[in-house]
Specification:
The protein is an alpha+beta fold. 18% of the residues lie in helices and 45% in strands. The protein has one domain.
């Protein structure tokens, strides 16, 4: 979903459905709603975004699916400065930004309950 990177008067709420990605340990990303606001501060444009999403992740040991609920509330900055997350562009792909947030916020290691049972019985 492309959005204009111009300041908003109030929070906007949109429905997101990320179906295609190349993240090997994310089996599924459930459709979700997210709220965002775009604020201009000096030489930076700030995207404030928050939401909750249901994920199905691959177990780090068995690769079995593990359901995980992720809540995020973060800022992403755009501009020409070295301190910004991204170079400013008139439009951005919100799905790509949200996928990056999900990848950075999800746990690096997660275990299915069967993996924990196997570990305790093998000791």
């Amino acid at each position: 979903m492309n959005i204009q990177l111009v300041p908003t008067q109030q929070k906007q709420t949109v429905s997101i459905h990320i179906t295609k990605h190349q993240v090997v340990d994310i089996i599924d990303i459930q459709p979700f709603e997210t709220s965002y606001e775009i604020i201009q501060k000096h030489d930076q444009t700030i995207l404030q975004v928050e939401g909750e999403v249901g994920l199905v992740l691959a177990c780090s040991k068995t690769l079995k699916p593990v359901e995980y609920h992720l809540t995020f509330d973060t800022e992403v900055t755009f501009g020409n400065l070295d301190e910004c997350d991204f170079i400013y562009s008139n439009t951005i792909n919100l799905n790509d930004i949200l996928l990056g947030i999900i990848v950075s916020e999800k746990p690096y290691v997660i275990y299915h309950e069967d993996a924990l049972v196997e570990e305790s019985t093998s000791s």
